[in-house]
Amino acid sequence: MTVGFLGLSHLGLVSAAAAAAKGYDVVGFDESAAHVERLRRGELTVVEPGLAELIAAAGARLRLTSDPGDLETCELLYVSVDVPTDEHDASDPAPVERLLLVAAEQAPAGACVVVLSQVEPGFTRAQRGRVERDGRVLCYQVETLVFGRAVERALEPERFIVGVADSVIPERLRAHLEAFGCPILAMGYESAELCKIAINAFLVSSISTTNTLAELSEAIGADWAEITPALRLDRRIGEHAYLGAGLGFGGSNLSRDLATIERLARATGVDAGVVAAWRAHSVHRRAWPLRVLHERLLGRTARPRVAIWGLAYKEDTQSTRNSPGLALATTLAAAGTEVAAYDPEAEPVTIVSPSFRRVDDPFEACADADALVLATPWRSFRDSEPAAIADALEGRLVVDPYGLLDAGRMAAVGLEHARLGVPLPKVSGC
Amino acid sequence: MLTHAQEAAPPSRTVVLGSRGFVGSTLLAHLSQLDWPAEGISSQALDLTADGAAESLAAQLRANDSLVFVSGLTPDRGKDAATFERNIRMVRAVAEALALQPVAHVVNIGTDAVYSDDANPVRESSCASPSSLHGAMHLAREVILTDVCRSAGIALVLLRPSLLYGPGDTHNGYGPNRFARNGPAEGKIGLFGEGEEQRDHVFIEDVARLISAVLERGSTGVVNVATGTAASFREAAELVAELSPAEIAVEGTPRANPVTHRHFDIAATREAFPGFGWTPLRDGLERTLAADAGSAARA
User: What is the pLDDT of residues B155-178, one digit of tens each?
Assistant: First the structure.
């Protein structure tokens, strides 16, 4: 069976490469011929560990094309374009609708067309009339792509969640999914579409609860890192729960799903006040580095200089959407604080200020700086030598929200090491 | 919650309505130090509750002025409906004056009493649901000013201060000011209960600096005036006792009301003015005690 993937952004590319890795012949289609050409040359537009290797290993099993006619042999077609969102986190389903039309026109009779893109509840059912003719059927499948871990999750998914019209998964789709060896759950369209949102809502709930209690730990002298192992051993919470203190939630996917919950709740009269609380708390925690800088540096130094390591919203991605590092750099530079930022992979950012500069070396950012902020938990930052940081910095303050650096070694070289989940270190000399 | 309209530039002239009060007089002194043009209008010079007040005020305003509105009868002058009504008459006069003679920028000094009593931590986005006539009056003032400024195309910023203390306080309400004023004279400071309530005490000169910062940037929006660090009344009292040369006993009393706390999340202020530094309570009380001692010596 040949499987087609329509839309080769992050989701489609990873999914297509994973299907090829399972031995399927795969046609990867994208409307942009230029994008396909870049992919053929091995130029990826997303940062995703292992993806380049996965595509290379697929070899001839993964055929990339911008010609819709190449989809004619596909008996199973996924519409897999990432749905863009606007500044209010509202989705634009137009690219999905366009590609569904391409699928409907090109798929052979009896083919199964699957919406894998991030759509709102009600979308799939509304599209049936455009796709389901000549024996074609339309399904929805929950995508659970995680930036930075997308390859691992695509090859070894925890489960598949499929939305269908009549509780029966079409045979072609079932055969494809069974190759991955994980549970397959069938449910109605709306249930599956809401299930996708529910997963993200529970993640946000965990993030918000974790960050609230981590802040309480800071306030009362507890250490959140000491508490989390106990929680992981509680079966109702679990070993994989989101218990690491962080700076709220970034990126666009979680925000988009919360916006969808709020919109649906408004339309149906459901009380979704808890979502507003999650949002507010995320914004509150994102400002934590600024709070530490304000308490320890800003307003006390005539011309403060701050080094920022990390502009991506999290590690292993180039996305800077809702990024704490970018937000901090923007705020500080606008106020005239000298900011030098380094990130190994983040997409280009626009901060129009003479006070901001992006550098290519982390220690160049630190040169003469009064403080260093590690705003993204890149693995490479964990390997940095505290002594080298101490040598490069003019000041002693290192704001390390994720605790990437060892507290004992930081103290040994005389650095003030501020971490989430524990009280701030005492000011030198007090 | 604040948007800056311009790069830092002093306003061409600042008019302070309520210039003899605690905030107004401190602000005028600060503007004078900055050498910014400023005019004060006190209630003695212009009674905003009187007939014709709007026309009189309009005649004193210019199109490129910045107006700081801090006039008002504070709760120590009355907490009843009559006081509420007089305060609303004042803002009505100001609104009518602004309609007659729009200015460039209005800075309204309100209160954190506009927020619900159980808001914690208080942010600018917290629910404004006042439980007192004083808070309701300030919320009504904000709505009235927002309406007139929108109609007249005037930039408006709403400041909502927490508890203020420092030299020159005219109120002597329960808190650091009364502790600093009465403690050395009486040799003791009496607390409500054990003074457990946590509050965000703001040094008056910081308020003046923040007002000058919003004036300088032509800021619009809403911002709380708080330090982000709360202290209990007992801590404030014990600091006064420690810093004063006099022997002062800090004494609790049987508690009459439940303990309530109020903390602020000042992220919006930090983002708007990252370089703004707040005076620690200890330093502020030290300066308050020194000023009070100086006043006593002069008297």
Answer: 999 999 999 999 988 777 899 999
Q: Quick check: B181 and B241 in contact, CB under 8 A?
A: no
Question: pLDDT (tens digit, 9 = 90+) per residue, A302-312?
Answer: 789 999 999 99
Q: Give this prediction's pTM.
A: 0.81
Backbone phi and psi for residue B175, each to the nearest 5 degrees, phi listed first:
145, -165
Are the CB atoms for B156 and B194 separated by under 8 Å? no
Task: Look at A287 and B125 and tell me if their CB atoms are within 8 Å.
Answer: no
Residue labelled with tokens 């792509």: A145
Is the sign of the CA dihedral A339, A342, A346, A350 positive or negative? positive
- CA A203 to the chain's CA centroid: 12
Distance between CA atoms of residues B265 and A283, nearest Å = 11
Looking at beta carbons, which residues of chain B come within 8 Å of A291? 228, 267, 270
Residue B110 CA to residue A316 CA, distance in Å, equals: 47
Please state, in angstroms and rounded to a whole number, the distance separating the CA atoms of residues A12 and A17.
Answer: 8
Interaxial angle between packed helices B22-34 and B204-217, expressed in degrees from 0 to 180 and rounded to the nearest 10: 60
Contact A291 B228 (CB under 8 A): yes
| Residue B32: strand pairing partners | none
The C-alpha of A100 sits at a distance from chain B's nearest C-alpha, in angstroms, of 42
Decide: A244 and A213 in contact? Cβ < 8 Å: no
Residue B66 backbone phi and psi in degrees, to 5:
-110, 130
Token pair of A20, please?
């090829």
